[in-house]
Automatic annotation (TrEMBL):
Pfam families: Nitroreductase. It comes from the Bacteria. Residues 7-160 form the Nitroreductase domain. This is Nitroreductase.
């Protein structure tokens, strides 16, 4: 797939088949994450352990319900909603909290990985909600071997798409101006 097609085709996928992605695809996705623009350290933690994924799902859902944030609470209340959407692979991005560019560094890597996943015929979703789980329960960071001094900032779910669910509308606002 050509790069512009992959960028145009990428959509947030919110329903996944249980089938695990191939290791070769995972390595390509990681390579894409590692080669994103960055200004400082970050870590990509690959979680494919079903028990840990279930624990993150459960804690993230509870955190969304208790967040006090109308949007998160309304999403969590949707029938059948689970924050990781059954994805068999979760790429968790963490970085030092003290670096003002950690959000940019991890998000650039995450975006590159979603485009690589699209190119490989896989579904993906950039997500903040796993961060809620890691904040609510610090034991998750230990279980996931998040490096000392690093905080989870965002994550990317990856897997084979299983159709459409919990879709969001891409807003079509005119947010471009030109100075020539
Ligand atoms: C900062 C940020 C946080 C997001 N967090 C989540 C999330 O936790 N769960 C989710 O399903 N989607 C999340 N998204 C994905 C957006 O909902 C999605 O990108 C947007 O609705 C546009 O849809 P598209 O990705 O299909 O084009 C997040 C996106 C951004 C930029």
């Amino acid at each position: 797939m050509n790069t512009l097609d992959a960028i145009a085709k990428r959509k947030s996928i919110r329903k996944y088949k249980a089938e695990q992605i191939k290791d070769s695809a995972l390595e390509e996705i990681i390579k894409a994450g590692k080669t994103a623009p960055n200004a400082g350290p970050f870590q990509i933690t690959v979680i494919q352990n079903a028990k840990l994924l279930a624990k993150i799902t459960e804690i993230a859902l509870a955190a969304m319900k208790n967040s006090g944030n109308d949007f998160l609470m309304s999403r969590a209340a949707l029938p059948g909603y689970t924050p990781l959407y059954g994805a068999p692979t979760l790429l968790v991005l963490s970085a030092p909290q003290a670096n003002p560019y950690s959000m940019a560094n991890t998000s650039n890597a995450a975006t590159n990985m979603t485009i690589a996943a699209t190119d490989l015929g896989l579904g993906s979703c950039y997500m903040i909600t796993p961060q809620l789980a890691f904040t609510a329960d610090p034991s998750l960071a230990k279980e996931a071997n998040i490096p000392e001094g690093f905080s989870v900032i965002c994550a990317v779910a990856v897997g084979y798409s299983d159709g459409n669910a919990f879709s969001t509308e891409r807003s079509d606002v005119d947010n471009v101006n030109y100075v020539k």
